[in-house]
Amino acid sequence: MFLSIGTPALLFKGVCLLMSAYILRFTRLSRLIRNFNIMFKNESSIENVKEQINIFAIRLRIIKFIHIFGVLALFFEISAMFFTLLGGGIIVNLLFSAGLIFFLAALISVLIEIYFSLKALDINLDIEY
Description:
The structure is a single chain. Helix 1 packs antiparallel against helix 2 and helix 2 (about 45-85) packs antiparallel against helix 3. The chain has helices at about 5-40, 45-85, 90-129. The protein has about 130 residues and is mainly alpha-helical. Helix content is about 90%, strand content about 0%.
């Protein structure tokens, strides 16, 4: 299989978009944890707040892995583009494949994070209704 420099560059945009979206999500989760910490001190339903804080901690760890996988995917995609310019044959395919694997790992981590996000929303709905 022959890869041109444009092939790894296609994923470059996707990884950058993924990273910027999850940096914003990380910031929002940090704010939510601070708010839950305040609620924890004032809330009569402390168990629900504790459970939500635990879920948010899990989500933060998952987002950390999303960032790591995204950065590794970006690294391998840039390396593939660099070695394409140098005329590297099989190493370009290996680097590109590694980048795809890390990008796929980031996407799977996103699905897991969405699951925990929905679980936290379910707990929040139980508190409100």
